[in-house]
Amino acid sequence: MDFTDQIVVVTGASRGIGRAIAQRFAEAGAVVACVATTEQSAGQTALLLDQAGFRAIPYACDVGHAEQVEAMMANIQDQLGTPHVLVNNAGIARDALLVRMKDEDWDRVLEVNLKGAYLCIKAVTRAMMKARYGRIVNVSSVVGLHGASGQANYAAAKAGLIGLTKAVAKELGSRGVTCNAIAPGFIETDMTHDLPEDFRKYVETTAPAGRLGTANDVAPAVLFLASREAGYITGQTLTIDGGLFL
Ligand code: NAP
Q1: Rounded-to-integer distance, Cα 152 and Cα 108, Å
Q2: Disulfide: which of 65, 153, 167, 233 matches 109 by Cβ 3.0-4.6 Å?
Q3: Which of 124, 161, 163 is nearest to 33 (CA)?
Q4: Is the CB–ligand 1 distance for residue 162 below 6 Å?
């Protein structure tokens, strides 16, 4: 898939799945806006890509805050041009059983994982509609499809992303803008670093793939959904879980 000179915005690009996505887009010729919470974290991926001869620019932004998202998208528009692709990958987990869940943890997970995607989409919508072209990919989760004990906030946010994806697909489809989601299973990143050993074993023995996933298992699917060739696919959620939930 060719993304030569396309402007691609990847949120949560500093590590894990977002870094792999940013790297793949850069390798495919894109100019990648690498978004993370701080200059330093966003800069880690941008520097890595830059040193490898690719084009990547860091942007610091808390995607849960409207004014920061608007300022970041305005900067990207000024410095790089209208984004062709937006990947809403930034996400956090604040797990707890319902009875112990703190309201601030509910609010923050919804703010980053769901409102963040809404704000980023809103901030690029006018420009994409004007360009009559756009690809939006939201990173949901199998937890948004199936739920998980101890993750009511995360599951609600990730399920919300799927509803958001369908609504945006319907609203922007006539303007050449598609919106799809992916639902990764359990992927080796900082987020899953502390998964209990018995749960890892469960995934390894239950998933037909026989292992947890890697960020590189996820990134190519994002590139496909963001490609020109995927223009007739919209409003869909693609599960990438090694068959765990079959
Ligand atoms: P990760 O390694 O913990 O990375 C999270 C990324 O999100 C970092 O780049 C982080 O930036 C960024 N981020 C966090 N809060 C942010 C905010 N308020 N504003 C902007 N950026 C923010 O996570 P990951 O495992 O790669 O997960 C990436 C996405 O995939 C998340 O949406 C996650 O829910 C989803 N997912 C993960 C798995 C899995 O098994 N790992 C499975 C399904 C779905 P900083 O470095 O600046 O903090």
Answers
A1: 13
A2: 153
A3: 124
A4: no
- Please give the structure tokens belonging to residue 77: 């528009």
> What is the C-alpha to C-alpha distance for residues 39 and 82, in angstroms, rounded to an integer?
22
Beta pairing partners, 187 = 213
pLDDT bucket at 128, cuts 50 / 70 / 90: very high
Each residue's pLDDT tens digit, 28-86: 999 999 999 999 999 999 999 999 999 999 999 999 999 999 999 999 999 999 999 99
Q: What's 183's DSSP letter?
A: E
* 217 neighbors 183 (Cβ within 8 angstroms): no
Rounded Cα distance between 204 and 76, Å, is 41
Whether ligand 1 lies within 6 angstroms of the CB of 239 is answered as no
Phi then psi dihedrals of residue 100, to 5 deg: -105, 0
